[in-house]
Amino acid sequence: MRKQILLKTIIAATVIACLALPAYAVMLVSRSQEVAIGKQVEESMIKEYGGLSKDQALNERIARVGKQVSSFSPRNDVTYTFKVVNSDEVNAFAAPGGPIVITKRLAGMLKTDGELAFVLAHETGHIAAQHGRKAINQALIAQNVAALLLRNSGDAARIGANVMYTLYTRGYSRDNEYEADNYGYQLMTKAGYNAEDGIKALAKLGMKRATGVNKYLSTHPDIPDRIDRIAKMGNISEDRKKTLIEQAQAEK
Predict the structure, then answer these.
(1) What torsion do the CA atoms of 179, 181, 185, 187 make, to the nearest 10 degrees?
(2) pLDDT digit string (tens) for 50-84?
(3) What share of the chain is helix, strand, coil (3-state, %, to 5)?
């Protein structure tokens, strides 16, 4: 038991330390392993969040918009799936290898398809950029050292699940989140949506960090910084940006 606890501690510390580093040249995590870990993580998330939503209209909307934005992803060796879970938390999360989960509350806050498109495209971006896969890979490399100390080589799926749990509770690095926002902008606009909806989606999440039910904000960079970046990418003026923020907050 002590060895398992120590191993989890080492993995968690390694993930936090390595997220800001460039990916290793050697990828130990195969695509099939990534997909298998992703399915395991998805199942855990669905269970934790009270099961899948039975709202057919909402499920169809999420699947439709998700398919639109993910069809423009530069990564096409995985199958992207989009599911809604019964939770009053405000959150969305991407598992390695394709699964994307959004809570019923967050989906309900995003009134237009364009707002939803940005959030789903952002999560798609994490998978396209292989953020989860790279973090697991880095932890597996570190596990080689841990195995020598603990005489226990472990299992890729178990380590991968532990890594994703760490990412879920602590969040990706700021650079990873900004890269996912870049994808969010690119994929939503390629799918025909207006970048202004990206600003409104972010503004509805709040203009500062939050905790409690708003899990999304507690694991993502500050909203004002993200809005400024989207506005620059979309050539949206300062006055228009302020108007969009006001509109979004009035609709909450």
Answers:
(1) 70
(2) 999 999 999 999 999 999 999 999 999 999 999 99
(3) 65, 5, 30
The pTM of the full predicted model, rounded to 2 decimals, is 0.83
Burial class, 30, CB count within 10 angstroms (exposed 0-12 / middle 13-18 / buried 19+): exposed
Residues whose CB falls within 8 Å of the CB of residue 104, separated by 6 or more in sequence, listed in order: 53, 55, 58, 84, 85, 86, 87, 88
C-alpha count within 13 angstroms, C-beta hemisphere, residue 117: 27
What angle do helix axes 2-18 and 156-170 make, rounded to 10 degrees? 60
Domain boundaries, the chain: 2-251
Give pLDDT tens digits for 189-245: 999 999 999 999 999 987 665 444 455 555 567 889 999 999 999 999 999 999 999
The residue type of 71 is S
SS (H, E, C) 175-226: HHHHHHHHHHHHHHHHCCCCHHHHHHHHHHCCCCCCCCCCHHHHCCCCHHHH
Q: What is the predicted pLDDT for the residue at 27?
A: 81
Token pair recorded at residue 225: 């910084």
